[in-house]
Request: fold
Amino acid sequence: MSDLKTREFKEQITRKYFSMVYKLALNQTKSREHADDVVQEVFLRYIQKDIDFESEEHIKAWLLRVTINCSKNVFADTWFKRTEGFSDDIPFQHEEKSDVYYATLELPQKYRSVIHLFYYEDMSVAEIADCLGQKENTVKSLLHRARIMLRQKLEGGYDFV
Amino acid sequence: MFRKEYKQANDNIKVDEALLERTIEAAFAEKPKKKTYYHRSFAPVAAALVIVIGASAAYPKLTEKPQVEQSVTAIVTSTISPTINPHSELKFEAIPEVTSEPIKNVKASRVKPSKNSTVKNVVANTEEPRINQDANSVVEDVAYIPSGSETVEAVSDALVLPSVARAVTGEIEAYNAPEQSEERFIQISCNFSDGVSEYVYENQSGKSFIVTVIDCCDESVSGLSVERNGKFYVFSSQNMTDAEILEVFETLNI
Reply:
């Protein structure tokens, strides 16, 4: 376990999961600036705090949970409550924009997190429930409602497999 | 289909490499720990402290008894017999709640005598009464100062009190009331300091007043009462001119 605390290992983990954390933060905050802040905060905590992780999977789950919590802290700010994320500044590599992605951004925050973890991170319902600290039935309900909302927003009869 | 498109969209998001490097560098940099001087959780504690401090500061003022007394300044010439050393005969006791300011402008209230004060019956000897001849005087009757008085205190009291009593209560008879009468004023305390004497008088009806006596130099004893700015000033000399009176007022900054 001491190997998990070395500087080299921590830097390796940072580089490996930086993109994952950044995209989740972007999904939650809907703003590039806020996502940058959240990412830095998450990895500062990971690197500087002396946490006993059992495995790399444990670290990954911890990073995802902390990312969501830090994103919630951004929402808790009074100023942010009166403003909305400027989703047009999402840094896509290509100019084409994804209707699916923007439709997801229009969902409430709790639905966005389960959709992102399920469809992009390929996590199971049980893993999502454990990560978010919720019951599996709750996660299932959230997914179900999110899909209904997305069907209403999107045209073309998407298959939510 | 949704999954595929959603993944493609997320894969299409560019991650800033510079941000990654900055994050790693900042995370591993050794920085001195910042001391937290304020946190939002401090606000309730700070508010409670302000309330406690404010209440404790205000408490002495809330429990402070108001001091309101009416006083009249009297200007009296010393009529001390050359054979008598007035200071050796005087027996003054401190007035616990009276200041030495010659002029006061406060409302009257009952003055309670201190435990150590000596209550004296002041009696004016009216064997040979003299009437104030000044047409402008408010006082119609002035106590007579008998010659050969052994104490200046008695002289001062006899000289001042009738005019003062009348000015304060409107009743000269209150001063000359019988001993058992509730209207009879009794001196309950006095204080002498730097040529200024203060006497506190009260009767059983709850009326009280303070007399501040400022000694001037004159020889005659008659009594001249002058009203100035709503206050009564008693001069022992009847023969003072208006200019002399004004000069005294200016000297005393009245």
Observations:
- The helical segments of chain A are 7-29, 32-48, 56-76, 78-81, 99-105, 109-119, 125-132, 136-153.
- The radius of gyration of chain A is 16 Å.
